[in-house]
């Protein structure tokens, strides 16, 4: 950007970078109104447990239906919302929306009365002193028991201010809310570090699941040691990004409790999850049908 350069300053003009910045600025401006215009939607991805796999929970995953660009992925707009501060309102909306939805499923779907809800927290939300009240209000409004909520945080979020993070997570756990460490293994996990975290669950990152089943996969000993470490600390282990049966089999052999991935289902709009659970007759532990890609 050539603006504000002094008389002797060297001007580096890069049209491509300029376009990128402009596009991002425009997207951030659109995002400001996305919530009130009803362009945001929460999708739900099933989480399964056991062999054969049965539905035990869902992860809420935010979607933005941009009027011109179509579906914008969260990895593109969540950082913008974090930078602008819009993530506070958006994050609260996701919690409220998803808690209300899951409470409805608890009442209306046979066998789904213990369905768990996982919601991703942004580092910005984790730093918010009002977080406990916001989460408590969302649960109260929905009539959802705290034990059914899992908040997901990443290791990197915890590294930036471990003391604050620990206080916040301890407070949530005192209410009965569960804490999951998302994308586990991509940060600086060590046994001593993990032991100090107030967590109930680790979610093994999909990068370690991808090559399970390949010859001499370097991820096998890695996943095995994560599972052992988690066991020793009394944590549940969930795998993300399970796409193939061979991955599912190896994960089960390694003692992984829960799984999530395209093998079971893509993230789907609320209406499709309801249909699915109804079709399953979830009251008896029926194997989850393999779903085709959601539209
Ligand atoms: P995450 O929390 O690790 O969510 C899992 C991501 O993996 C999701 O991407 C999901 O669609 C994708 N996934 C699930 N199964 C598979 C699979 O079998 N294979 C592959 N390749 N991918 C799979 P998505 O929905 O694009 O979300 C990306 C990230 O955006 C999330 O990662 C999370 O960090 C963030 N995010 C999503 N919703 C929210 C939200 O409401 N609040 C915040 N703060 N972050 C969110
Ligand atoms: Mg997550
Ligand atoms: Mg993850
Ligand atoms: Mg992630």
UniProtKB/TrEMBL annotation:
Top-level taxon in the UniProt lineage: Bacteria
Signal sequence extent: none
Domain (EAL) ranges: 24-281
Name of the protein this chain belongs to: Diguanylate cyclase (GGDEF)-like protein
Full-sequence range covered: 347 to 641 of 641
């Amino acid at each position: 950007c050539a603006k504000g350069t002094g008389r002797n300053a060297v001007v580096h003009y890069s049209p491509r970078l300029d376009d990128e910045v402009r596009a991002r600025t425009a997207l951030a401006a659109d995002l400001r109104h996305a919530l009130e215009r009803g362009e945001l939607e929460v999708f739900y991805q099933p989480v399964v447990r056991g062999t054969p796999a049965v539905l035990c929970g869902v992860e809420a995953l935010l979607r933005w239906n941009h009027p011109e660009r179509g579906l914008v992925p969260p990895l593109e707009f969540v950082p913008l919302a974090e930078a602008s501060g819009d993530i506070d309102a958006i994050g609260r909306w996701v919690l409220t929306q998803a808690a209300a939805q899951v409470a409805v499923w608890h009442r209306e779907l046979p066998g789904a009365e213990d369905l768990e809800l996982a919601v991703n927290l942004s580092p910005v939300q984790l730093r918010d002193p009002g977080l406990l009240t916001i989460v408590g209000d969302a649960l109260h409004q929905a009539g959802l028991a705290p034990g059914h909520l899992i908040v997901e945080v990443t290791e990197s979020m915890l590294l930036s201010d471990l003391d604050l993070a620990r206080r916040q997570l301890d407070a949530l756990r005192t209410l009965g809310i569960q804490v999951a460490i998302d994308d586990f293994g991509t940060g600086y996990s060590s046994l001593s570090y993990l032991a100090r975290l107030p967590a109930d669950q680790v979610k093994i990152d999909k990068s370690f699941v991808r090559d399970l089943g390949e010859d001499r996969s370097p991820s096998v000993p890695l996943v095995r040691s994560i599972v052992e470490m988690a066991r020793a600390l009394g944590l549940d282990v969930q795998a993300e990004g399970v796409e193939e049966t061979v991955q599912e089999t190896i994960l089960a052999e390694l003692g992984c409790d829960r799984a999530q991935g395209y093998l079971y289902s893509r993230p789907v709009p609320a209406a499709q999850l309801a249909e699915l659970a109804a079709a399953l007759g979830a009251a008896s532990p029926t194997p989850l049908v393999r779903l085709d890609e959601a539209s």
